[in-house]
Amino acid sequence: MEKRFFWLRSGRVITGLSIIALLVICALFAPWLAPNDPTEQDILNTLVPPVWQTGGDWTFPLGTDGLGRCVLSRIIYGSRIALTVAVFGALGAMILGSVLAHIAGYFGGWVDWVIGRVVEIWLSFPPVILSLILMVGLGAGLQNVILAIIVVDWTRFCRVLRSDVMVVARRDYVAAARLLGFSHWRTVTREILPATLPLLITLMSLEMGVAVVVEAILSFVGMSVGAEVPAWGQMIADARADIYQAPWTLILPILAIFVTVFGFNILGDGLRRTLDTRLTQTERA
């Protein structure tokens, strides 16, 4: 059992999992954790400061925005959007990118050349600009945000994973599997995929952080969820009008994005250090 969960000994992994666990708890139990309705406007209590400042009210622990909406409640409910996009956007990009990476790295030749040229063409477009262009064509909506992330970011997995697949595909045990009559599907799934899985998990974790940032950018410019749905990027956009009178309305959603992305990134770095045997052997040496 200890050998199976050896990666839990990493401080980076524990820190990342703790932050992500907090995010998941906020997303799942938002109706019970949020002290107020995140969309309810209280004109009599606009720009109420956080409780640690003079004039703060425990009814609104982190204060209110320009429309009298509870900042803490909106941050808690905004974690639902962030987590949904992080999971489904990163998962879709991982599936598409890893499938093409394994096909290109395993078969090589003209198959690898075609997929490589597609990746190069795709990477020639700035990711954020390409996401905005896609959202203009697809229209606003959470599903379209997830689709845009998948379409844009699959190249991250394909480019990095392809080289790892090529190295593994040339190992002796893969050649032995082919000599024994293993099909291409069985060779890739039974012999190559287990060797590339640590890198795949690391890239998945890092991509989840990227997806959170992309969603925040799209919601900031009004191309993500509707105005009635709390989202961190939307909170930042709304806070611009009151940045001098109420800086907490801008700082707190930015801090939520930073902590979330930091959690995913440090988890990915911890998994890379513990699951990648090559890196582990280098550090020991």
UniProtKB/TrEMBL annotation:
* Keywords linked to the UniProt accession: Cell membrane, Membrane, Peptide transport, Protein transport, Transmembrane, Transmembrane helix, Transport
**Membrane topology qualifier:** Multi-pass membrane protein
Mind telling me which InterPro entries this protein's record contains? BP-dependent_transpt_permease (IPR050366), MetI-like (IPR000515), MetI-like_sf (IPR035906), OppC_N (IPR025966)
- Stored Pfam families: BPD_transp_1, OppC_N
Query: Membrane: is it a keyword of this entry?
Result: yes
Q: Known CDD domains for this protein?
A: TM_PBP2 (cd06261)
Compartments it resides in: Cell membrane
Which residue range or ranges hold the ABC transmembrane type-1 domain?
Answer: 79-268
**Which parts pass through the membrane?**
12-34, 81-108, 128-152, 199-226, 246-268
Q: Where is the signal peptide?
A: none
Q: Does the keyword Membrane apply?
A: yes
Quick one: where is this thing mainly located? Answer: membrane
Similarity comment: family membership: Belongs to the binding-protein-dependent transport system permease family.
Task: Specify the protein name.
Answer: ABC transporter permease
State the organism named in the record.
Answer: Pseudodonghicola flavimaris
The lineage is: Bacteria, Pseudomonadati, Pseudomonadota, Alphaproteobacteria, Rhodobacterales
